[in-house]
Amino acid sequence: MKSIMSYLFLSEVICCVLFALLSSFALASDPSPVQDFCVAITDPKAAVFVNGKFCKDPMKATADDFFLSGLNIPGDTSNPVMSNVTAANVAQIPGLNTLGISMVRIDYAPYGINAPHTHPRATEILVVLEGTLYVGFVTSNLNPGNKLFTKILHKGDVFVFPIGLIHFQFNVGKTNAVAIAALSSQNPGVITIANALFGSTPPINDDVLSKVFQIDKKLSIMSYLFLGEAVFVLLALLSSFSLASDPSPVQDFCVAINDPKAAVFVNGKFCKDPMKATADDFFLSGLNRPGNTSNPVMSNVTAANVAQIPGLNTLGISLVRIDYAPYGLNAPHTHPRATEILVVLEGTLYVGFVTSNLNPGNKLFTKILQKGDVFVFPIGLIHFQFNVGKTNAVAIGALSSQNPGVITIANALFGSTPPINDDVLAKAFQIDNKLVDYLQSRF
């Protein structure tokens, strides 16, 4: 324990210098947009208009711009569908602007449903925290035409709903259910199918709807809503219209496989024949199980990315579960290809990120997070989480890439193979070569 505490103390000194030197090198190339972040504001004075929002003066940005509390509070499910979605998107967290990710908490009463809907701008990855859900999505009209993928999810299970496809979740249990979902857009949009078709303002012409569903114009909306077969017809007919324009890529999904035979190479992976795809390609179990924190930094990251869920290929999102022992640290690191949005499930975390060298140069944004709190770490910036409590802590992080990459700063600099020349590191950190040798021996 003494060596661990010595390491943590020494790392504070090193990381402060390291943050200043390396923040601007977190990306191999400029992302779009080319600033660290663009905190959304409604006042156009002295602001820049980016991605549909005005940017706050970065010198006036604070940690609260990247923070939201309350995702531990159950939503009100006393409504006809007996479910509730609590959003954590750019409307609630202005710092999410331009960063391409958001999060929701979904509460389901017994037999509650998150009714069939689409997100026109986002893929969704969902993890069940409590209860049992029957979930599914339907492909577009093209091959395999209007195929339904379904799965029963239990606590800790993960499922992916590809961008723009009609999907749903239904609580088949006798107790309340809770899920956390991440979406690959700061503002993914929601089109609830029944509401859009039968509750539009002004209403869609009766002749149009009766022709589409081959039903009598006198059939009431409520009667329709209870016709299960008609609902599945609706899913089949409308899946291909869920996007206003083609996303990139232009297929529903590309399940990753290693066998190149009769496959297409997309985003670094071969695509499985879509006729052979199954619900298991979009599924992962086990995110309810604690990770092993018996290591020098006393934390553990359990990934749910394209390596574990092949259906994530091309869909631009992933999840992680992070476990922290008391005083455990998710050491300073970057994700070169992803923004991260994190929600605390248990415990108390001290978190932060440091901006790049440009204005405001190497500014540290920090916050103490409690259960239910949400925080955003912008793409490519050095960030960390530290359990300041005396009990274990758990968090779920969502990242805006199927394979976000991780660069743990201390390991990369002092544990590379072959090692970086002592003179380079001594000069960079203004330290003695012997201290460089000692640090390298630690990694």
Q: What does it look like?
A:
Disulfide bonds join 254-271. Residues 69-221, 285-437 form the Cupin type-1 domain. Keywords: Apoplast, Disulfide bond, Manganese, Metal-binding, Secreted, Signal. Residues 1-28 form the signal peptide. With 443 residues, this protein is α+β, with helices and mostly antiparallel strands. It has a domain at 299-441: Sandwich (Jelly Rolls), CATH 2.60.120. Helices cover 17% and strands 30% of the residues. The strands form six sheets. Strands 4-25-22-27-20-19 form a six-stranded antiparallel beta sheet, with no helix packed on it. The protein has a six-stranded antiparallel beta sheet with strand order 5-6-13-8-11-18, with no helix packed on it.
Task: Write the SSE topology.
Layout: H1 2-22, E1 40-41, E2 48-50, E3 53-55, E4 67-68, E5 83-88, E6 102-108, E7 113-118, E8 124-130, E9 133-138, E10 148-153, E11 158-161, E12 166-171, E13 177-183, E14 191-192, H2 193-198, H3 206-213, H4 221-225, H5 228-238, E15 256-257, E16 265-266, E17 269-271, E18 283-284, E19 299-304, E20 318-324, E21 329-334, E22 340-346, E23 349-354, E24 364-369, E25 374-377, E26 382-387, E27 393-399, E28 407-408, H6 409-414, H7 422-429, H8 433-442
Antiparallel strand pairs: 1-3, 2-3, 4-25, 5-6, 6-13, 7-12, 7-14, 8-11, 8-13, 9-10, 9-12, 11-18, 15-17, 16-17, 19-20, 20-27, 21-26, 21-28, 22-25, 22-27, 23-24, 23-26
Helix pairs in contact: 7-8
